[in-house]
Protein: Glycerol-3-phosphate dehydrogenase [NAD(P)+]
Amino acid sequence: MSSISIAGAGAFGAALAVALAQAGRKVTLWARDPAQVAQMRETRENPRLPGVLLPENVTLTTEAAALAGGAVVLLAVPMQALSGFLQEHGAVLDGRPLVACCKGVDLASGLGPTAIIARNCPAATPAVLTGPSFATDIAQGLPTALTLACADPVGPALQEQLSTPVLRLYRSTDTTGTELGGALKNVMAIASGIVMGAGLGESARAALITRGFAEMLRFARARGAEAETLAGLSGFGDLVLTCTSEQSRNFRYGRALGQGAYFDPRITVEGAATARAVAALAQAQGIDMPVTASVAHVIDGRRSIAEAVKALLSRPLKEE
Ligand SMILES: NC(=O)C1=CN([C@@H]2O[C@H](COP(=O)(O)OP(=O)(O)OC[C@H]3O[C@@H](n4cnc5c(N)ncnc54)[C@H](OP(=O)(O)O)[C@@H]3O)[C@@H](O)[C@H]2O)C=CC1
Ligand SMILES: O=C(CO)COP(=O)(O)O
Structure:
């Protein structure tokens, strides 16, 4: 039975633990909070996935060293926590496949998850697992398809290890395109939420998604990604899901901005920091990213939504 370790017992880490354990894998699930681990051991539930039981073959731990027992380690902490997590625990994880399950660009460094892995764990094999998948759907055993990207020849073996009868993984070697798809779609999900929250209408949302995708493609290609990757699950697939679903936290955050409503700052919204990071990278490299720049302006309070919409609509007319 292959063994898999998962760092981060939030909604996604716990959902992956359930799915992989139900498919017969031995799973070690790590969380930093001893009280949370004690509670999960007692109830066999994760508070972020109410009603879903953690199977017996999921071992819960606060010892990062226990993660080293896995043939593969999934990193399911939020993007802005990944670098700090690996600075603290990278030494025990180095030398094995490390699969980033987070979506975003690190604000401090401008790096994506595979580069953060390579910087902290030089002997590891970086990979990324991403695509359209709400944690609750995965935890309930609903059919899901994701992209597993790895530039190393171990990619096909990882694909086998992490696929289950209901969690179908498609393989890619384009780690840059795959991780950028997951990162950039969250920015567009915030924009989509703003459009709906501000009452701009579904036609405006369709325009936003389409032009948002064009800008995702532009940025990713400028960074060496393949266009086909962005058209796949991690880009187009996840863009469709999170720009149109009320389950998406990024969408709900944007909608609250559009409505001028309160949004709980404890909720993980990866697109906020990523909008800032990508807007800065795009400006430095001269890549035209009007939607991303507008999202960054609005969340930082530098532009009202009305001003952002006016600026987007008054750009020079151009070819599609
Ligand atoms: N939820 C979903 O549907 C999906 C999420 N993802 C991605 O998965 C990643 C994680 O999201 P998700 O699980 O939903 O987030 P959650 O908010 O549910 O959980 C985040 C987890 O990370 C832990 N964490 C936060 N900071 C640190 C840190 N510095 N060191 C160690 N652990 C830390 C939290 O611990 P604590 O409680 O102690 O703060 C918590 O267990 C994100 O990048 C997200 O985009 C991908 C697909 C689907
Ligand atoms: O990435 C996700 C689904 O693929 C989850 O989206 P949110 O983080 O916006 O909830």
Q: What stands out?
A: Strands lie at 3-7, 26-30, 58-61, 72-75, 97-100, 125-130, 144-150, 167-172. The CA atoms of residues 213 and 236 lie 7 Å apart. The pocket of NDP (ligand 1) is lined by residues 8-13, 31-33, 48, 76-79, 81, 84-85, 101-104, 133-135, 268, 270 (CB under 6 Å).
